[in-house]
Amino acid sequence: MSGGLFDRCRLPVIGAPMFMVSRPALVIAQCRAGIIGAFPALNARSTGQLDGWLHEIRAALGQGDAPFAVNQILHRSNDRAAADLEVIVRHEVPVVITSLSNPAPVVEAVHRYGGTVLHDVIDTRHARKALDDGVDGLVALCAGAGGNTGRHNPFALVAGIREFHSGLLGLAGGISTGQGIAAACALGADFAYMGTRFIASSEADAPKAYKDAVVAAGIDDVVCTRAVTGVPASFLKASLAAAGLDADRLPGADGNMDFGAGGAGKAWRDIWSAGQSVAGVRGVATAAAIVDELETGFHEGRRRLSGAIKRPRCTFTAEG
Ligand SMILES: Cc1cc2nc3c(=O)[nH]c(=O)nc-3n(C[C@H](O)[C@H](O)[C@H](O)COP(=O)(O)O)c2cc1C
């Protein structure tokens, strides 16, 4: 896409794609509020519905709104990937976020119309591989993230990726405040990638009880486990308990939990995912109100970094 990715944004933020939670209403609200909104293509029940959603989003957004993004899960279990990509190309989706395996075919198709491809990575090996495959930028998925989480510390992973990548880089995992966005930028990231913060938004397609559980939860109420899906992912302990499971005594780490037929759907629908950033979620609000609050915090964070706001033992200026 021409110009900078965040030229039409109020904040350097992507509202991260969330399975079963991000649908057109949230994406449109995020883009109107001034951040990039995103949803997983697989949230649409079919490729035909994806086509309809892209029409809806295009029709709702104006020239002044932020661009939007679609997430493509590149896993062999996704038998819609090729058909969905055709629809994405037809709509010239401005930003495509790829997850899991080889993004090269997506890169080729999206670059043909001038779109941007970002790939999320959990370590430097995957980061180098994605760059070799031609992606335009990376999202560093760090420890504590909602959904399938990373395991590395954000300070270390951003520094590690910056050793060999000077291009576009986002930071994901644990960011719930504007101060966190400013901190991500101070670390060397170009943008923050925030999922959990938007589960408790009015426009998110999550049941009220899920949103309330995110609001009620603190950092210790989130558990990272392989037991639910087979890969490390973050879940609310309360939803595990409601499913009759003890978060401290989960079955083996091989994803062998028996959910019966349609287990994967139950894993996300009934066992609720959220990251450690629940700690910063105080209530349900519209996406616009959340972005307003993030902007206030972002500017405060920047003032603090510049030394204008001083606190005992919390400033790095010599006289502080
Ligand atoms: C409920 C939920 C569902 C998610 N589903 C997806 C998904 O379908 N595809 C994806 O790439 N990431 C998914 N994620 C991960 C987010 O895109 C993002 O990486 C993560 O939320 C960032 O960490 P945070 O939650 O601490 O902000 C999901 C996260 C949550 C909380």
TrEMBL record:
Q: Which UniProt keywords apply?
A: Flavoprotein, FMN, Monooxygenase, Oxidoreductase
Q: Per its UniProt record, what Pfam families does this chain match?
A: NMO
The UniProt GO MF terms for this protein read: monooxygenase activity
Which Gene3D superfamilies is this protein grouped with?
Aldolase class I
| Keyword Flavoprotein part of the UniProt annotation | yes
Highest taxon, organism lineage: Bacteria
Q: Which InterPro entries match?
A: Aldolase_TIM, NMO
Oxidoreductase recorded as keyword: yes
UniProt record similarity statement: Belongs to the nitronate monooxygenase family. NMO class I subfamily.
What's the name of the protein?
A: Nitronate monooxygenase
Source taxonomy: Bacteria, Pseudomonadati, Pseudomonadota, Alphaproteobacteria, Rhodospirillales
